[in-house]
Design a protein that fits this description.
Layout: H1 6-18, H2 21-28, H3 32-46, E1 51-54, E2 57-60, H4 62-86, E3 93-99, H5 101-107, H6 109-118, E4 122-128, E5 142-145, E6 154-169, H7 170-176, E7 190-193, H8 203-211, E8 215-219, H9 222-230, E9 236-239, E10 249-251, E11 259-268, H10 275-289
Parallel strand pairs: 3-4, 3-5, 7-8
Antiparallel strand pairs: 1-2, 5-11, 6-9, 6-10, 6-11
Length: 302
């Protein structure tokens, strides 16, 4: 009969997610040797190999892939049990929020003051990444994502869109002049996001970038793209709300061109009604989805 330690299963999750013993050790605040030894203990207990060690790193075995799915479910259920036991008058505990770096680094921080004033016992762990996991994956409680969730266990709580327009800094416009039309962009320095769509209403911008020999900056980071634009590196597409916080930036009228990005707020079905989770969901919805106004970062004009 197995006598598995949940703490060792959590270490397995850390290693599987980090795909590295050293990175998992750093995240778990234990030594790499201790991490490796405890994983070996778990492998002996289970009677299967969990990882192939290669020069590039570690790879999950087929058995580990199947076990990972089950242990991830266990993690969700354990956290649900912990949350249910802690439900009282005062909300407390951790919430893992997965967002893009632009939202996590730019939009979120100034809005969290009020949330933490209301709920001082809640710690929000903000995980920023250009490609975000879906709600319920890799320990994510809530996701604010540019990709519509496909996991059948993910509940879509709200959806909206962000409007973007061509933007440049005042310093750039003084140095290089102001383009008057989309065709004029062929004479200007451009900054582009590697994860922007290339089809639909984005075809116009994608075509301009593809044909330009003056693309001076590319990045997979919305934050980095905004900083490059703010510092005069070139013209980029930016959310219209950025002008509220960056007086050095200007929207450029180019044949009325604008485009948009859809985004979704989602949560795993098993945890959506945990009080602290629901508190953050309701707060995000009130700040982003229920009160969008012209000029805000998240404004749908139709």
């Amino acid at each position: 009969m197995f006598n598995m330690d949940w703490n060792e299963l959590k270490l397995f999750l850390q290693v599987a997610r980090a795909q590295s013993f050293s990175a998992a050790a750093d995240n778990g605040f234990v030594s790499q040797s201790t991490m490796s030894r405890r994983i070996q203990n778990l492998e002996r207990e289970l009677g299967v190999d969990l990882f192939h060690r290669t020069v590039q790193g570690i790879v999950l075995t087929p058995a580990a892939e199947a076990i990972l799915t089950l242990v991830t479910e266990m993690e969700t259920n354990v956290r649900l049990i912990e949350a249910r036991a802690a439900q009282e008058k005062v909300l407390s505990g951790n919430i893992r929020l997965s967002v893009s770096d632009g939202i996590g680094g730019y939009w979120l921080p100034p809005r969290m003051t009020e949330f933490h004033r209301r709920y001082p016992g809640i710690t929000v762990e903000v995980i920023c990444s250009p490609s975000m996991p879906e709600a319920g994956a890799k320990g994510t409680d809530i996701a604010l994502s540019w990709h519509q969730p496909e996991d059948p266990d993910a509940v879509i709580l709200s959806e909206n869109k962000m409007v973007l327009r061509p933007v440049a800094s005042t310093d750039y416009l003084k140095t290089y002049g102001t383009p008057k039309s989309l065709d004029d962009l062929k004479h200007h320095r451009l900054c582009d996001h590697l994860h922007y769509p290339r089809d639909g209403e984005w075809k116009i911008w994608a075509s301009i970038v593809e044909q330009s020999d003056k693309v001076s900056y590319r990045t997979n980071s919305s934050w980095a793209l905004g900083e490059a634009t703010k510092n005069g590196v070139g013209i980029s597409l930016q959310p219209i709300g950025v002008l509220n916080r960056e007086p050095n930036l200007r929207i450029i009228e180019l044949d009325g061109y604008a485009t948009s990005l859809k985004f979704w707020l989602s949560c795993h079905v098993k945890i959506k009604d945990i009080p602290r989770i629901r508190a953050l969901i309701d707060y995000i919805r009130s700040e982003v989805f229920l009160r969008p106004v012209p000029g805000s970062a998240f404004y749908s004009d139709g």
